[in-house]
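Record 1 of the preview.
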Amino acid sequence: MKEITELLSALETHIDPEIAIPIVVAVIVFAAVYFLFRKKEVPPETVAKEQPEAVSAEPEGVEPPPEPSAPEVAPVQVAEPAPEPIEVPEEPALPEETEAEPEELRTEEEPEEEKVAQEPEEEITAEEEEDDTEGDFFSRLSLGLSKTRRGILQNLEYVFSSGRIDDAAWDEFEEILIMSDMGVATTAKLREKVSSAVGAGGSGDMEKIKTLLEKEILDILREVESPVTDLSAKPTVFMVAGVNGVGKTTSIGKIANRFTREGKKVMVAAADTFRAAAVEQLGVWAERVGSDFLRGQTGADPSAVAYDAVKASVSRDIDLLVIDTAGRVHTKTGLMDELKKLRKVVARELEGAPHETLLVVDATTGQNAVEQARVFGEAIGVTGIVLTKLDGTAKGGIIVAIAEQLGLPVKYIGVGEGLGDLREFDAEQFTKALFTSDKEALH
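->
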């Protein structure tokens, strides 16, 4: 205390020592308590950083009191990162949702990749169906056409049930056939021929109208009945076209299976190089049915793959080469230009090839199938139609529209998932199945 008093005297201060000494002591005590508090409350890292600031604050004496507020805020800010970890656990919900979306997209956009594993496995188990009799196939065909048949016959029966025939009844007759996708032009011709046969003022005998309609449809379909070319050329080349999603790859696998079962040596070439899923699926089919398989690199020139396939089929003594083509392309050239180029390459490398240019169309697409057949036919000279998915559709009349409007031969029809459910088209069998009742189809 003496030293403090002397110091104050030396400084010639007018502060009363009795007042100044307690103040200085209080400041020192406050500073000591402050440091003890900070050591207990603040993390070691913060203390280590802020100790120099505390030391520099001691000489100023009066200023330390406002400083505690700043250090107290600092510990709160240091501790506040705790809420952030609370938000972080909640955010993983977003990745789960974004991860779920690709899975949904895979089921929608890449069904073919799933079908690579599923379709062939399910269909291969149906190999025994190849031994089924024509009667068994007729039953399946008739049942497959049941929706189309009901849409036509039941509605016609309702229209003509009163026994009265007038223009209004024939207008409804047209509407019913158009609803089955026989097309406006084809329906108009059928109305003219059937109504003429019935005669003006004739009775609305449903059996007679049904018989007349069946006869007219059979006459149209007989015009496009054409067997698939024989395999006299070696190798015989089938070029198969069609837009994505119509069942082109599956149809190729079934065609390859039919000929391998007949003892023919078959090669399948995957020239649809833009869809990896289609290539993989075709590879699975080739392995299952026992045919050779040739593929190109993803994105490679389809014509180059076709060229290699022709050369390989000649060297391996192949009986039948089936070339799968693109349903769409991702280049500046159009699909038709790409198909024309591929066809030209095949024709150049093997005289007479391709011996069949088959177009696969989906019966469920209705009039779109007619337009596809028209466009592809004009571009690449389609020699035959493969009509798939006739089972379970109410639009089975599309085959009549294709036959009457385009005159393109119908080579194969598909009525189910089994290997034996793709058969060569028989006009009489098809027409009979279309007009056979459900009960008759079962027996």
